[in-house]
């Protein structure tokens, strides 16, 4: 089936990309056998995707990417996420209930944008801004059409970004059966679908990997599974439940998999001194975290296993359809809120390794669309060493042996640092990747994913 016709503006942009990359000598890359020229040409062609891998760096604006690049691979180096053949930017604003713009989004509203193609109010999960009605998500549409589905995160599985795929809630706080105060009409007692945890397993998403065990340990208060924990509900629905790296590696793809690797958010990979008023002494980040339990699987390994499980399911079914997988590096955002540059850089580096896994898979399966982006910008800024920020700052010693100063000043010291309303990067390869070129809106990512999989 021929791909959709490119608009004139996108065609011009796509042609410019191909022209630019034509001057580059094609080489074998770590992502596979296609050099930049071939990757760009394939990405511009459009066509149908068998698989989609969507990678979300939560809070990963351009400053966060640049900080991780400078620290880990050097100012002239390139991260895995820098190597996509096609790159654009998209706007991230939310809306008020009346549809007017709310210029700074949270993760719930932003995730709803790409999950449903509809903008909503901050705090809402895949529901309309005014009428609070559920809107079908890209995961639900993929399931309906026979695709295997998965969601991987370093946050709680009930946190906003994974929630927007497999749940509909008036407020993002309604994560478990005991957390429903802000969602009275969503409760099972009122005829609603229940908490985000209940909905996620009830959807029978094939692979759910992340943190949030505390939400799934809560007891269901009404309905068919009343008196059981959500984890017990999941087992009743056929889920295999795994809790560490060893059990994850051993699990087979004959049944859906629920991985719960932490009570709350999965602990970060790196540690260091948080930013402080007046700055910190120059520091090197500690690339291990004593508070991260042994046996906690990293994001790259979870991504690898998720792909294997989703592939295995479709092969058993002898299905011609592939899979839809979302992977979130959640604590880039959470460490940005905490003004913790080392925690933030470590999580960006961990996310970048998951990007490498996805691109390596796509190199062997060119009918896979891979997209990497963020839900919103955040507060970290790289500033001159002589700058004297009024808020929190920290000086790092990079792998190049140079000093780098990071500033956090979107809120007074002692308060959580805030998101920003900036546009953010989106990059892609594979069928329909040309759609990310130029400046688009977050809701257009939904259309890109839907068109790639030819979902109704």
Keywords, separated by commas or semicolons:
single chain; 456 residues; Alkaline Phosphatase, subunit A; 16 strands
What does this protein look like?
It contains 14 helices and 16 strands. The model is unreliable at 1-6 and 15-33 (pLDDT under 50). 53% of the residues are buried. The strands form three sheets. It has a ten-stranded mixed sheet with strand order 7-8-6-5-10-1-11-15-2-16, with helices on both faces. Strands 9-13-14-12 form a four-stranded antiparallel sheet, covered by helices on one side. The chain has one domain (48-453): Alkaline Phosphatase, subunit A, CATH 3.40.720. The chain is 32% helix and 17% strand. It is globular, with a radius of gyration of 21 Å. It has helices at residues 8-22, 36-44, 62-72, 107-116, 138-144, 160-166, 196-202, 213-216, 230-236, 245-250, 299-316, 331-337, 341-364, 442-453; strands spanning 51-57, 86-91, 94-95, 101-102, 148-156, 207-211, 240-242, 257-260, 276-277, 323-329, 368-374, 381-383, 392-397, 403-408, 424-429, 439-441. Helix 10 (245-250) links the parallel strand 7 (240-242) and strand 8. It is α/β, with parallel strands linked by helices and 456 residues long.
Task: Offer a quick outline of the entry.
With 456 residues, the chain is α/β, with parallel strands linked by helices.
**CATH class membership:** Alpha Beta
Poorly predicted ranges:
1-6, 15-33
Helix content: 25-40%
Q: What number of structural domains do the residues give?
A: 1
Mean pLDDT: 92
Broad shape: globular
- N-C termini distance: 16 Å
CATH fold field value: Alkaline Phosphatase, subunit A
């Amino acid at each position: 089936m021929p791909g959709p016709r490119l608009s004139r503006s996108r065609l011009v942009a796509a042609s410019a990309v191909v022209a630019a990359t034509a001057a580059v000598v094609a080489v074998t890359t770590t992502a596979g056998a296609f050099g930049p020229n071939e990757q760009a040409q394939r990405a511009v062609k459009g066509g149908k995707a068998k698989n989609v891998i969507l990678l979300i760096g939560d809070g990963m604006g351009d400053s966060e990417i640049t900080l991780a690049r400078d620290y880990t691979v050097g100012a002239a180096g390139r991260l895995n996420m820098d190597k996509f053949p096609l790159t654009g930017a998209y706007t991230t604003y939310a809306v008020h209930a009346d549809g007017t713009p709310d210029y700074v989004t949270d993760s719930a509203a932003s995730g709803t944008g790409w999950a449903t193609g509809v903008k909503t109010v901050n705090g809402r999960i895949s529901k309309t801004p005014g009428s609070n009605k559920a809107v079908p998500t890209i995961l639900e549409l993929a399931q309906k059409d026979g695709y295997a589905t998965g969601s991987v995160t370093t946050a709680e599985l009930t946190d906003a970004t994974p929630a927007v795929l497999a749940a509909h809630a008036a407020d993002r706080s309604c994560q478990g059966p005991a957390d429903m105060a802000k969602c009275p009409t969503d409760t099972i007692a009122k005829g609603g679908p229940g908490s985000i945890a209940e909905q996620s397993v009830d959807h029978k998403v094939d692979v759910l990997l992340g943190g949030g065990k505390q939400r799934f340990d809560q007891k269901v208060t009404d309905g068919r599974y009343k008196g059981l924990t959500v984890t017990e509900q999941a087992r009743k629905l056929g889920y295999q439940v795994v809790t560490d790296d060893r059990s994850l590696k051993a699990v087979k793809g004959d049944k859906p998999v629920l991985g719960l690797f932490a009570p709350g958010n999965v602990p970060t990979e790196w540690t260091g001194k948080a930013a402080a008023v007046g700055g910190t002494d120059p520091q090197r980040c500690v690339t291990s975290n004593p508070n991260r339990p042994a046996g906690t699987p990293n994001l790259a390994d979870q991504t690898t296993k998720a792909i294997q499980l989703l592939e295995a399911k479709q092969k058993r079914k002898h299905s011609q359809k592939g899979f839809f997988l979302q992977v979130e590096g959640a604590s880039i955002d959470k460490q940005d809120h905490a003004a913790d540059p080392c925690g933030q850089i470590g999580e960006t580096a961990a996310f970048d390794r998951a990007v490498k896994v996805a691109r390596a898979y796509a190199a062997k399966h060119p009918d896979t669309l891979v997209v990497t982006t963020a839900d919103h910008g955040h507060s970290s800024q790289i500033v001159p060493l002589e700058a004297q920020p009024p808020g929190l700052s920290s000086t790092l010693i990079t792998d190049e042996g140079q000093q780098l100063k990071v500033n956090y000043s979107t809120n007074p010291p002692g308060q959580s640092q805030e998101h920003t309303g900036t546009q953010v990067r989106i990059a892609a390869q594979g069928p329909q990747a040309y759609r990310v070129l130029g400046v688009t809106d977050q809701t257009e990512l939904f259309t890109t994913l839907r068109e790639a999989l030819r979902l109704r």
